[in-house]
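Lay summary. Proteins are chains of building blocks that fold into shapes, and those shapes determine what they do. In this project we predict the shape from the chain. Here is one chain we studied, written as its sequence of building blocks.
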Amino acid sequence: MAYGSNIWAIAQLALTYADRMFRGAKPADLPVERPTKFELVINLRTAKELGLAIPQRVLLRADELIQ
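And here is the predicted shape, written in a compact code that computers can read:
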């Protein structure tokens, strides 16, 4: 299992910062932002090989299930 920020949202935020700097903004003047989108990814094949049972509640909350 992995729980973390959405990589595409982070990339989009980085592009927004780059755009602002190219337009003349000083990096020190830009606000510090934290990720707002997080994902839960579960690798079912690895869980099965390790003999782990993932509860249905957790499976329903997952954003992505890897078969």
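What the prediction tells us: The chain has one domain: 2-26+37-66.
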